[in-house]
Amino acid sequence: MTSTNQAETPQALKSHRLDFLEAECQELKEQHLFQSLRVMSSAQGAKIQLDGKSVINLSSNNYLGLNTHPKLITAAKKAIDDYGVGTGSVRTIIGTMDIHQAFEKRLAQFKHTEATLVLQSGFTANNAAVTSILGEGDVVISDSLNHASIIDACRLLKKVPRYVYAHADMTELEARLKETQSARRRLVVTDGVFSMDGDIAPLPEIVALCEQYNAIVMVDDAHASGVFGKNGRGTVDHFNLHGRVDIQIGTLSKAIGALGGYVACTQAMRDIMINRARPFLFSTSAPPSVVMTCMAALDLLETDTALIDQLWYNTRYFKAGLKSIGYNVQSDSPIIPVIAGTSEKAHRLSERLFEEGVYVRSIVYPTVALDKARVRVILSATHTQTQLDQAIAAFEKVGKELDLIGP
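The chain above was modelled as a monomer; its predicted structure follows.
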């Protein structure tokens, strides 16, 4: 005999207690803030298959194209053969393999720090770093445009006040440092390269102020890793500040081409995070294929700068192309924001570019301010000059249609 529950259709089993979310989705759509997922059916690259259409890809963090590099693919396959596809545990129980330890040691040498600790993402790396070293009596001082992962990490510190200084404003940073001198410890945290505007932090000035006022310095180099500095070591290397920045956060999922994040720091901080950092304590360790892929990426970065050089050539070329057709673009990195203004216009710009064979995602509130909606171009070393020329032509055509540039 079939029970009543077994006879019910999936639709009948739907919970109506969540119906209020449908109205909230509709409200987002009316405000032009609703985001839907596009589906890629090819490898990540300079040209991709997206929603069944072949398009030039200007939205990926895959700065060097390493996700499909033959040496990384070979390393991943060998790791699977040698170690399997997963680790089956958190690091502190039975999830630490010899390759995890070897990679962290190698990464520390690359970053010129005593130690590193690898986590599941750059997001969790910020969480692990901030929450492991601060407590009651301490203070965080944060740039107003820092990444959401930094903001969320600071919010988890219920007994630690957070002070915010205006973006890259050193006068205001010094004011925050002066007014918090009674704190037990102070942590100043900044992005190295800011992900929405593509500008680089005034790190030498930040470091100098922190040395003057005895504050800890932490830099999130997610978008600088593999891009800035000698062999892609990041903004600390770019500004020759080794030994003067206490904590460096990096990712393994952007220029490195794989997945994960890391904290580059002292050995003592690594040891504390192993014992205190909840993302480390309660998440399964990185799969062997990911670890060895990242090891192979370091091999490439240390022995050949051709991809980094090409990335910067493409960046200069594309910026010059956009400026030549009338766009006022400003950035210090391969991230190039094209400001549309309203969320409606940003969405329209993205849609029309897609129709013209160029994919660049619109970025709207709350990621950016309501009146600063944009499309965010990200260049890769793998873009050809022909592809860049085609994309510039599309920006010119659509920009004139939407009155973003002159006729």
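The longest strand covers residues 335-341.
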